[in-house]
Amino acid sequence: MKKVCVVGTGYVGLVTGACLAELENEVVCLDVDAAKIESLRAGVMPIFEPGLDRLVSRNVSKGRLSFTTSYEDAVRDADYCFIAVNTPSKDDGSADMTYVKRAAGSIGEHATRDIIIVNKSTMPVGSGDEVSAIAHMNLRDRTIKVSVVSNPEFLREGSAVKDFQQPDRVVLGSNDQAAARRVGELYVPLRAPIVITDLPTAEMIKYASNAFLATKISFINEMARICDLYGADVKEVAAGMGYDKRIGRAFLDAGLGYGGSCFDKDVKALTYMARKTGLHPQMLEAVMAINKDQRHVAIDKLEAALGDQGSLNGKSIAVLGLAFKDNTDDMRDAPSINIIGWLLEKGAVVRAFDPEASETARAVLPKDGITYCEDEYDAANDADAVLVLTEWKQFRDDLDFQRLRAAMRNPEQGAVLIDGRNLYDPEEMARLGFHYQGIGRGDGKRRVVLSNGATPADH
């Protein structure tokens, strides 16, 4: 049984700790937030992540998982110490390494034997060497050997436990190949490909992976705008593209753009790193610009559907979904933050519902102008329009559309529904009496007119 310390109990740290304990390692999760540690000891999860509560409970009961605020207790007997703390964006786009540096210093200070520090947090290229230097500088016993291994995470919120237990690959980078192989031993039971490389390459693999996925999202959203103008359906376009093995179908879902804690932060950090060396990262800049603009598409469609010269003043808008994606309560960089802010600026009132994120939303959304509702139908009560912002399963599969439409204001005159996640079939929604608008579904009123007077859809 290996002894593991995990510093940080956020999405990455808590999932990593619980899953390593499930692999029959002895894991201590450390956090400087005493209230969070007390909650975890009481069995209360600080985040919503499917399956995580059961995993934590099972491994705590078996004595393989514990929680502490003490570096001395967590590091003293550890063979491995994972750093899984936050690296938020600074104003210039660079990653804030404050928490990483503190963790590295504290690990070095409390190390009592040779130890491997595993960088799990997403850190700029070159961070492995910096963590090593800080840890060595703080050693009380200079004979202790500290090795640093970069082990970037590829967890998706909402399926993080599954992603850890069934990874596409495990990436390990170090200047000490023996240390990298020792970290690899932790992952052998998962039977996944293990890629061992040097430190900067492992660090870059993480950034390049997230930047590429963000690029696919921004690409299909730009295609969606063109589809709306030319009468094409972006869902069918994505399906047709996806059959090409060189392209693949994943991450070609048009909508409101990417959100959450990873893509925005990582694309910004990679852009900063490129600019810092004198490069001009044109593609990365375009990816960010498209993503920012995409969120306003929901407002444009809403104004066009409601008419009234586009005025939303005094309109009641039901917002279904607040979290940046389904199966999480995470509000970081959620499209709902911008969209609700614009609605309020335009004088609309918002009736919001999310299955899990209402409490976290209260902390980041404006205090006035928003009513948090019990369910979808409560949110739609006397609403002028419904705006779907998150792809929750209960919105996709379980909505009673007749009940939803009946709850709205003037349903007989055309119940406006803006589907920001393309969950529904336009023809079916029209049959049910909705004035429906998806993203890139070819259902917009505008059409490009060719020089012969025809529209592209006529050809």
Question: What tags apply to this protein structure?
Answer:
about 450 residues, alpha/beta, elongated
The total of helices stands at 19
Helix percentage: 40-55%
**For the residues shown, what is the average pLDDT?**
95
Q: What does the largest sheet look like?
A: 8 strands, mixed
* Basic shape: elongated
Question: How many strands appear in the DSSP assignment?
Answer: 14
What structural class is derived from the secondary structure elements? alpha/beta
Q: What's the N-to-C terminus distance?
A: 67 Å
Rg estimate, integer Å: 24 Å
Could you list the spans in which at least 5 consecutive residues all have pLDDT below 50? 444-449
Strand order of the largest sheet: 3-2-1-4-5-6-7-8
Amount of beta strand = 5-15%
Question: How is this structure best described in words?
Answer:
It is built from 19 helices and 14 strands. Helix 9 packs across helix 11 (263-276) and helix 11 packs antiparallel against helix 12. 46% of the residues are buried. With 459 residues, it is an alpha/beta fold. The protein starts with a strand and ends in a 22-residue tail after the last strand. Strand 9, helix 14 (335-345) and strand 10 form a beta-alpha-beta unit. The chain has helices at residues 11-22, 34-41, 52-61, 71-75, 98-110, 127-137, 160-165, 177-187, 199-230, 234-242, 263-276, 282-294, 296-306, 335-345, 358-362, 376-380, 393-397, 401-407, 426-431; strands at 3-7, 26-30, 65-68, 80-83, 115-119, 146-150, 170-174, 194-197, 316-320, 349-353, 370-372, 385-388, 415-419, 434-437.
